[in-house]
Specification:
Blueprint: E1 3-7, E2 10-12, E3 18-25, E4 34-39, E5 45-51, E6 58-60, E7 68-73, E8 78-83, E9 92-98, E10 111-115
Parallel strand pairs: 2-10
Antiparallel strand pairs: 1-3, 3-8, 4-5, 4-9, 5-6, 7-8, 9-10
Length: 117
């Protein structure tokens, strides 16, 4: 059974940091590029980071560039998103997605990130 399970979300003040994790199972994780996608309240899906199979090619959305870092561990089958200098506009539900399409069908249930004073 293909499964992606996100964790690490929470509530932080502006300027704070969080580390999100995504545990993959049921497929050969090292063979797939992965993405982090978020959905803010009342808005559509936004792809914020992608990482290729080996972790050598990484892209970031303009809204998070310089603040977020994506990485992967192909031995532990995990995807990580380190988020720093969080802003209220980073509030949303964060998903890890298999592949590079924001609306990809293989994704987790999401983890909530709330940034507020």
């Amino acid at each position: 059974q293909v499964q992606l399970v996100e964790s690490g979300g929470g509530s932080v003040q502006p300027g704070g940091s969080l580390r999100l994790s995504c545990a993959a199972s049921g497929f050969t994780f090292r063979s797939y590029g992965m993405s982090w996608v978020r959905q803010a309240p009342g808005k559509g899906l936004e792809r914020i980071a992608t990482i290729d199979v080996g972790g050598g090619v990484i892209t970031y959305g303009d809204s998070v560039k310089g603040r977020f870092v994506v990485s992967r561990d192909n031995v532990k089958n995990t995807l990580t998103l380190r988020m720093t200098d969080l802003k209220p506009e980073d509030t949303g539900l964060y998903f890890c997605v298999r592949g590079f399409t924001a609306s990809g069908s293989i994704r987790g249930q999401g983890t909530q990130v709330t940034v507020a004073s």
